Amino acid sequence: AAAGLGLSSQLNNARARLQHPHPAVREAAAEAVGALGGPSALPALRDALNDPEASVRRATYSALATLAHR
To answer: In a 3-state reduction of DSSP, which class is residue 66?
Structure first.
């Protein structure tokens, strides 16, 4: 159970970083959400598809593909 709490905390932190002012942080956050998340991560990733930075959008598409193949 403790490991699950750690994963949940990591996922929540990654989701919060999708709003960070620096694009590189948002890009890394999208990758982390894809690696850590499940269906509950979809709303945050959907929002990130509208990011003004192409690199963040690409990372978001990749994260969605990762989630779709689980």
So the answer is: helix
What's the predicted TM-score (pTM) here?
0.87
Whether the Cβ atoms of residue 59 and residue 49 lie closer than 8 Å to each other? no
- The per-residue b/e assignment along 27-44, b for 16 or more CB within 10 angstroms, e otherwise, is bbbbbbbbebbeeebeeb
Residue in this structure with the two tokens 């890394």, named with its chain if needed? 28
- What distances in angstroms separate CA 44 from CA 13, 16, 24, one per listed residue? 12, 9, 17
- How confident is the model over 26-48, as pLDDT tens digits? 999 999 999 998 888 999 999 99
